[in-house]
Structure formats: structure tokens, C-alpha cells
Design a protein that fits this description.
By secondary structure, the chain is an alpha+beta fold. Helix content is 34%, strand content 19%. The protein is built from 20 helices and 22 strands.
């Protein structure tokens, strides 16, 4: 664990906020990122190396793309949750549906689809003439196999929970597939754009040797180094114009910059470049920068657990008022982001513009802390009103953002300790509620109204409860179930879940049944309790609990027609803005850095890689 303290960040942050940085931009004089000596060398290279002396990018007909991390396999059943793998798989696989630029779900492999009025039956009619990269036709049997495989406990797919209400799948003919759900499944359609279709019978070899039906075919992967793809000349959507892609793993930012300058790399997209580096690269005649307003969300999550200082709403509001987002966007992010006041991007139909906005207001922040019972202990002295910790990833930009927030909150009496953690450690702490504040960029999940249940709906996060239910689900042995019933009754008797009259009723009903004579019925009731407590709120790391919001979210899912849904989601967003379980900072821009030989660049707000098959490559 790396702990960033006030002392080793003070100089950087002070420079950024006072406008007297160690390095100055020749036009504005605004602060650059930290690491001044290393950065100075890179900046001089960017400005002084003549463009004409650079090697031209790649071989003829080959586009070289730099990615910042190695992938973790290429099987949609296992790799979808890892961002780098998901991007590459967008080129290899097709999905039943995709999102368009307006965040609407539109057909892809499915030429058309219908949803029954009770939201329990979903019928997809497949596009004719689609083949896998092997030449085998893609049929409904392949779609059925893909989802059956995800649902099988033996597969141990990490995305099983996204489709686990599906009880059966039919393939009545090669072009039709029908999904049946155990109950109304309002979120099923929203999960489909992430699930690529694999060939029937495919095993775990797909992890390292994928076979899809997408615009590019997999050729090879040298682990930790390079992925090679070639164009699918028979792709149903039209063959890509660039015959070959080499996707190169370049983990170091400075190396990625250097390889773009030399022409060893043609393109890098949302590759975590420092914003000042992007500005410097834009001044080169052989480099092009494409910026487009993004839909992903940079935000702070706050721990609302009863023992947390941030369980106090006024403290959360004070933190929000103590942050000057515009300063960070302009001086650190170099205007490569736009301010966010809500979870959804403004272009989305469910976005509510009338929420409470927390502009930078230090005096209001101090007043809120006074009201919350955290007065200033020593006037102008050094003692803080309260102490909090913020978790970030290890990227330099995330650390710099946290450092500026640290300096800003110091001005209202909040001492913020910075902890920079590797991803696995950080997410483990979030799962265990071992944090006060965390900073993350949410990728993609906020582009569908399913995000409201995903983020704001309560979720009972008790590991003992989950483990006991997992055992109950897999057994029909009466004696074993009796022991599990005792454990579940003891856990649920504490009523530590978000208040729910329906859960209370089911728990009481289960308790009234005989554990031996009524074992089957009792098991069914506990499974229903488990679904109510854990089906939603998959990213509610904040432990946010508002029974009214829970009720509205379910009501919106069941509402007929978009106007009714909009009205309910408006109430959800206004309530959440007042209660502040998350502080929304900005929507980062989508940033593409490419050599000048790359053409026909058409980015979309989601940050996906679907634009790559449409690119052109000029010959040299």
C-alpha cells in the first residue's frame, strides 16, 4: 500500500491551485502534472524532436494500437468484466444488441426482438447469413449455448448474476431464440450488449484462442506483449478497410508517448495520458488529437455505514461544497472533461437536470460541519474538524486529483489522508466497507437506466448470509437444510438489511414453518428473501439505504411507457442528490491520439471500440 501524505503532495497541489507551478505552459502558465523532472524530459522530446525525422507508423495495411494494460483473456463468459479485454472483444465478437449514440438498445446480431407484456419472455430473430470466423453459420443454437454456459454453475462465470433470472432458453428454429424468465426481468435487455456470442460446444480454449463473428479474427496473442487480429472479409456489417490490427501492450505512459512520436504506434484511445501530454502532442504536425464529450463518470463514493463519519448527511454535503471541480477540470484535466451533477450523461433520456448542485462554497461547507457537530477546534490553528481517508488507484493522474481534493478540503477543516492502491486491494477494501471516500471513473454502467438500481438500490452485504444461502441453494437434504434454516433465522433476526416490509413478512412466514415437514416451502421463501436483498444494488459500495428510493426504482422498472419512467427516475435523482451517497465530479472526454495517416475517425460518447473497423489507413 502506498500512502500519500500532505507533505509529499503539498508542493504539487499548491502550485496547481496558486497558478505558480514548477513547470508552466507557454501560453497559460497553468500547472502541469507532478513528476516534474521526468515530465520535463518527455515534454522537451514532444516539442523538439522534428516530426519529419520520425518513423512512419507500422507496416502497410497494419494499424498498431497501444493499450495500457494486458488483457485477461478473450472469452465473453469470463473476461467481460475487465475493461481491456472487453474493448478487444468488441472487435472479435458480435452481441445480440448494441447501444447507439443516444444510448438506445438497437439490433446487432438480432435483426429484431420483442419483449412480452409481463416482461418474462424475450424473443430474438437473428440476422441471416452471419458466420463465425471458422465459416460455420451462427444460429440460435449458438446463442442458446452461450447463455446456457454462462448460467451453468459448473462454468463459474462471473457474469452469471446478470442473467440468472433466465430459467430456460428455446431455439425453435435456426433464426429464432426465446428466453424465459422466472419473474418479470426488467434489466435483461440492458445486459445483452456486453455478452458476445460464442460457437456451440466451445470450451475454455476460448479464453486464449477466441472464435467470434465480429469484424476482426483472432490470430495470436503473445502474453503481456501483443495481440494480432486480421480483418473478417465476410463480415455481415462490411469488411474493415484495414487488413491487420496489432494491439500492443505498453504499460508505461512515457513509452506510449515515445512510440506514438516515433511512429511505432499509430493510435491510443483513452489510454490514461496526462492531459498536458495530450496538449503537447497536439502541437505536432504528424499527430492528431480527437476529443469528444464522454459519457463515463468520474465520481467519489462515500461510506454511509452506521459507524462512518460520512453517515451524517451534512458531512457529505460539506465535502461536496468543499471541492472546486472547475479548478481541477481546467488546471489539471486541461478542460478534457465537463462538470457532472448527476450519474447519467446529460444526453440520456433519463437525465434529470433539476437536481441539487454543489458548487464550490467553503463557507457553506464550514456551516454544514458546524451543524453536523464538527466545529473548528482551534480557529486559525492547524487542528482539523475531522479526519477522513480517500482511496485511489495507482495512476499518477488519480493521485494528483486526490491531492488537489485533499488541499481543497483542508481549507474547510477536513484532513484527508491519501491511499493509492492496486486494483485488487482497492476493490477488496470497497467490498468490505474499509474506506471513507474512494475515487473511480465508472465505465459504461451509467448509460442505461439500469444504473439506478445498480448504484442506488439497497443491497444486503453480509458474507455469512451469502455463504449460507449458497449452501441452501445447492442442497435438498432435509437434515442439512434444517441446520441452514437455523443459521439464516439468526442472521436475519438482526434486521441489519435496509428496511423492507416484504422481506420482514417473508422472514416471519419462513420462521412459522416446520423445518422438516415444510422444508421445501421454507427453502423457497428464503430464496425469495435472498433475491429481494441481493438482486439489485450490485455497485452500491456506499451502503446507501433509502426504502423510498428502493420502491421508486422497482416502480420505474415496472412502469409502462417512457414518460412514466422519466417522472419516477426524476424523483430518484433529486432525492439522491440531496442525500449525497456519491459526489459526481466530471464526465471525462474521450481522447484519441493518432498518427496523421489514420482516417475516418468517428468516436461515440460511450468510449467503445466500435469505431475501429471503420478507420482508414493512408499508405506512405
Amino acid at each position: 500500500m502506498i500512502v500519500e501524505t500532505d507533505r509529499n503532495k503539498r508542493e504539487l497541489v499548491g502550485a496547481a491551485l496558486r497558478g505558480r507551478p514548477r513547470l508552466q505552459h507557454p501560453e497559460s502558465g497553468a500547472a502541469t502534472e507532478g513528476r516534474p523532472y521526468k515530465f520535463l524530459i518527455v515534454l522537451l522530446l514532444l516539442l523538439l524532436i522534428p516530426a519529419a525525422s520520425c518513423k512512419r507508423g507500422g507496416q502497410p495495411g497494419t494499424l498498431v494500437i497501444a493499450i495500457e494494460l494486458p488483457p485477461r483473456g478473450f472469452d465473453p463468459r469470463f473476461s467481460t468484466t475487465f475493461q481491456v479485454s472487453a474493448r478487444v472483444m468488441q472487435l472479435i465478437y458480435d452481441t445480440l444488441l448494441v447501444k447507439d449514440e443516444n444510448f438506445e438498445f438497437v439490433p446487432s446480431l438480432a435483426e429484431r426482438f420483442t419483449e412480452s407484456e409481463d416482461h418474462r419472455t424475450f424473443t430474438f430473430h437473428l440476422r441471416p447469413g452471419v458466420t463465425f470466423h471458422t465459416g460455420k453459420p451462427l444460429t440460435s443454437s449458438d446463442v442458446k449455448y452461450t447463455f446456457d454456459s454462462i448460467l451453468s454453475p459448473a462454468t463459474r462465470s462471473p457474469i452469471r448474476g446478470t442473467v440468472d433470472k433466465i430459467t430456460s432458453i428455446e431455439a425453435p428454429d435456426p433464426a429464432t431464440v426465446v428466453f424465459h424468465a422466472s419473474e418479470p426481468y426488467y434489466t435483461f435487455i440492458g445486459n445483452l450488449p456486453a455478452i458476445g456470442i460464442i460457437p456451440e460446444g466451445a470450451g475454455t480454449e476460448m479464453i486464449n484462442a477466441p472464435i467470434g463473428s465480429g469484424p476482426y479474427k483472432f490470430v495470436s496473442y503473445q502474453e503481456g506483449n501483443e495481440i494480432k487480429l486480421e480483418a473478417n472479409s465476410s463480415y455481415w456489417g462490411g469488411a474493415p478497410s484495414i487488413p491487420r490490427l496489432h494491439i500492443k501492450v505498453v504499460t508505461d505512459n512515457s513509452t506510449r508517448q515515445a512510440e506514438l512520436m516515433s511512429g511505432e504506434v499509430d493510435l491510443a484511445y483513452n489510454a490514461q495520458f496526462d492531459p498536458e501530454t495530450v496538449r503537447a502532442l497536439s502541437r505536432r504536425s504528424d499527430i492528431q488529437i480527437k476529443l469528444r464529450d464522454g459519457a463515463n463518470i468520474g465520481y467519489l463514493g462515500l461510506n454511509l455505514s452506521p459507524s462512518s463519519l460520512l453517515s451524517n448527511q451534512r458531512v457529505r454535503q460539506a465535502v461536496a461544497c468543499g471541492i472546486d471541480r472547475e479548478v481541477i477540470i481546467h488546471r489539471l484535466l486541461r478542460d478534457q472533461a465537463r462538470q457532472a451533477n448527476a450519474l447519467m450523461p446529460p444526453e440520456h433520456w433519463a437525465f434529470e437536470p433539476g437536481v441539487t448542485v454543489y458548487n464550490h462554497d467553503p463557507e457553506r461547507a464550514k456551516q454544514l460541519l458546524d451543524e453536523a457537530g464538527f466545529p473548528d477546534p482551534d480557529g486559525d490553528g492547524p487542528e482539523p474538524r475531522l479526519r477522513l481517508t480517500i482511496l485511489t488507484s495507482t495512476t499518477q493522474l488519480s493521485r494528483n486529483i486526490a491531492a488537489i481534493i485533499q488541499d481543497q478540503l483542508r481549507g474547510v477543516g477536513i484532513q484527508l489522508e491519501l491511499q493509492s492502491l492496486e486494483s485488487a486491494t482497492m476493490f477488496d477494501k470497497l467490498a468490505k466497507a474499509q474506506f471513507d471516500i474512494y475515487y473511480l471513473i465508472g465505465l459504461g454502467f451509467n448509460q442505461s437506466p439500469d444504473a439506478f438500481q445498480f448504484v442506488y438500490h439497497s443491497r444486503y452485504q453480509d458474507s455469512q448470509f451469502n455463504e449460507t444461502m449458497a449452501k441452501l441453494r445447492t442442497t435438498n437434504d432435509a437434515a442439512q437444510m434444517q441446520q441452514l434454516f437455523v443459521q439464516l433465522a439468526s442472521i436475519l433476526a438482526k434486521r441489519e438489511y435496509c428496511p423492507s416490509p416484504e422481506v420482514d413478512r417473508l422472514v416471519d412466514e419462513a420462521a412459522s414453518l416446520d423445518s422438516l415437514a415444510d422444508a421445501t416451502t421454507k427453502k423457497r421463501l428464503y430464496l425469495k428473501v435472498f433475491a429481494l436483498l441481493t438482486d439489485r444494488g450490485g455497485q452500491n459500495r456506499m451502503r446507501y439505504c433509502n426504502p423510498q428510493v428502493d420502491s421508486w426504482i422497482v416502480e420505474a422498472e415496472r412502469a409502462d411507457g417512457r414518460p412514466a419512467k422519466v417522472a419516477i427516475y426524476s424523483k430518484v435523482q433529486k432525492t439522491v442528490a440531496d442525500e449525497v451517497p456519491q459526489i459526481y465530479l466530471w464526465y471525462p472526454a474521450n481522447v484519441l491520439v493518432a498518427r496523421d495517416r489514420v482516417g475516418n475517425i468517428q468516436l461515440d460518447p460511450s468510449g467503445s471500440w466500435y469505431f475501429i473497423p471503420k478507420l482508414t489507413l493512408a499508405s506512405r
